[in-house]
Amino acid sequence: MRLRSSFTAAAAIGFAVAAASPAIAEPTDPDPADADAIRACLAGKVTRKAQETCIPLIVNRCFKEVGNEWDITIRDCNRRGQEAWDRILNDAYQGLRDRLDARRFAALRDSQRAWIKAKEKRCNRFWEEFQGTMAHPMIAHCDHRETAQRSLFLLNYRK
Asked: Which of 19, 36, 122, 126 could share a disulfide with 138, CB 3.0–4.6 Å?
């Protein structure tokens, strides 16, 4: 009985310490600074081809931080990159909303909605084709690449 109460007390203290400790960020966790790193990479690059060299920046950085390229790492690092590009995409979209007249923005909004549907169809096809663990990193890579490409499209929209 005494051993059980000692174990219970130790477990309670362990849980309390763990709950009070800040979460340790993993290299694959999204980082708000990632979008700024991409923006810095894009600075001064005027051609689309030059801008595209920034697409793998966060994913490659993540791979280096993790130290492997296993399926789960590929998936999580691509999700981290996709989230950074999604922030850039949303900022570009908001900037266009403020800059374009109502008619032109409505056309862009419709185009954006169509792109979202097309991206989902294009990327989710990997699940339909493979239906296994291999599909997850492929879907994440597709989401990352498509979001980055659309971000560049919006950043360069009618410059």
From this structure: 126
